[in-house]
Amino acid sequence: MSKKIAVLPGDGIGPEVTEQALKVLKAVSSRFDLSFEYHFADVGAIAIDKHGDPLPEATLQLCLDSDAILFGAIGHPKYDNDPSAPVRPEQGLLRLRKSLGLFANIRPVTLYPTLAHLSPLKPEKVEGVDMVVYRELTGGIYFGEKGRNQHEAFDHCVYTAVEIARIAHLAFEAARKRRKQVTLVDKANVLETSRLWRSVVQEIAVNYPDITLDWMYVDNAAMQLIQNPAHFDVVLTENMFGDILSDEASVLVGSLGMLPSSSVGAHTALFEPIHGSYPQAAGKNIANPIAAILSAAMLLDHLHYSAAATSIREAVRETLEAGFGTSDLEAAQLLGCSEMGDHISELVLKAAVVA
Ligand code: IPM
Ligand code: MN
User: Fold this and answer.
1) Which residues contact 190 (CB under 8 A, 6 or more apart)?
2) I need a labelling partner for 119 at 20 to 30 A (CA). Which of 12, 56, 227, 321 fits?
3) What region, left, alpha or beta, does residue 283 occupy, with left being phi > 0 and alpha being psi -120 to 50 degrees?
4) Is the pLDDT of residue 355 over 80?
5) pLDDT value for 274
6) Boundaries of CATH 3.40.718.10 in the chain?
7) Are the beta carbons of 15 and 298 closer than 8 angstroms?
8) What is 1-102+267-355's CATH topology?
């Protein structure tokens, strides 16, 4: 049966990296005899330009009617320095997450040994880095009541026990399939919301006696990510801490251009690179499409096409080991964005098909 994929390329380098992910998905379809139907829709700055809305109703409806969403990137420099802009591209993504109930954002951070030299850390520090961040995505300071006048502004941070519990369960389940450790990152020495996180997560931990739970204040976690990154297995945290720490974690492994993510919850799951729209590189065929391509692999896993997903990850590994890379990877064999998509597709077409 054919799966319906909503494709939301968005802004900046979003369209070109998404095109490479689609190229690889096409290779996967032919190699593994899978069938996908792609439906494109606008989101972000381009949707504001075309429809006056960063998340047009038709885009949301398409997402609700699809089996999965492949998302590019959003953001445009014309909004960055304009605090008075009434609508912003980012609102499109935030509303999409909220409308689909995508409460868990899953960001794996894995070191490819061939890229260890690109890390700002010494190779012996990054060796063995393999963590996954479970970031709460539809609550906290991002979605609390907000207000501003000329002299004062506020953003409320609110969490309910239910919001904490549902992502905590996912994090513990994930740890079961990994190194069996969950680190809860919070600021429980200062914030009430963090104290609620601790008490709810501690209660849930009782149901997972095989998992070790440890806690870290977010300031310490920011430091430990640099000092001892291999310590982390599953990092569980609230929305804004997760936003910040996952960007920090991503540079440890060499390039932000390598990291995929999935967002799951009540409705259609969404798959997107964690990098932004990188407008300076847009249209130059220099962006690294690997994060988008690996996001497509996460999409395949989600649809239970795991052999197909593995073929993509293997193709990426092989490509890097052979010395190919985009300019951010300072590769011996320099490829453009599109050529990287071609290269990975060719390897996928030759992948062994495991029954
Ligand atoms: C991310 C991004 C978004 C966020 C922005 C674009 C709203 O930084 O996905 O990490 O802050 O969640
Ligand atoms: Mn972010």
Assistant:
1) none
2) 12
3) left
4) no
5) 92
6) 1-102+267-355, 120-253
7) no
8) Isopropylmalate Dehydrogenase (3.40.718)
- How many angstroms separate the alpha carbon of residue 29 from the centre of ligand 2? 31
Q: Which residues contact 18 (CB under 8 A, 6 or more apart)?
A: 7, 9, 10, 70, 71, 72, 292
Annotate 132-170 with b (16+ C-beta within 10 A) or e (fewer): bbbbbbbbbbbbeeeeeeeeeeeeebebeeebbebbbeb
Homologous superfamily (CATH) for 120-253: Isopropylmalate Dehydrogenase (3.40.718.10)
- Kindly report the protein residue whose alpha carbon is nearest to atom 5 of ligand 1: 90
Q: Please report the atom of ligand 1 found closest to the CA of residue 93.
A: 7
Measured in angstroms, how far is the CA atom of residue 244 from the centroid of ligand 2?
Answer: 6
DSSP assignment, residue 2? P
Distance between Cα 307 and ligand 1 center (Å): 30
SS3 of 143, please? Answer: coil
Q: Are 194 and 237 in contact (CB under 8 A)?
A: no
Atom of ligand 1 nearest to the CA of 239: 12
Q: Give me the amino acid identity at 173.
A: E
- On whether the CB atoms of residues 118 and 160 are closer than 8 A, the answer is no
Q: Mean pLDDT of all residues in the chain? A: 95
Is 243 a catalytic site residue?
yes
Other beta carbons within 10 angstroms of residue 116's beta carbon come to: 19
Full DSSP string of 182-241: EEEEE-TTT-HHHHHHHHHHHHHHTT-TTSEEEEEEHHHHHHHHHH-GGG-SEEEE-HHH
| pLDDT, tens digit, 9 for 90 and up, residues 188-210 | 999 999 999 999 999 999 999 99
How far apart, in whole angstroms, are the C-alpha atoms of residue 269 and residue 100? 8
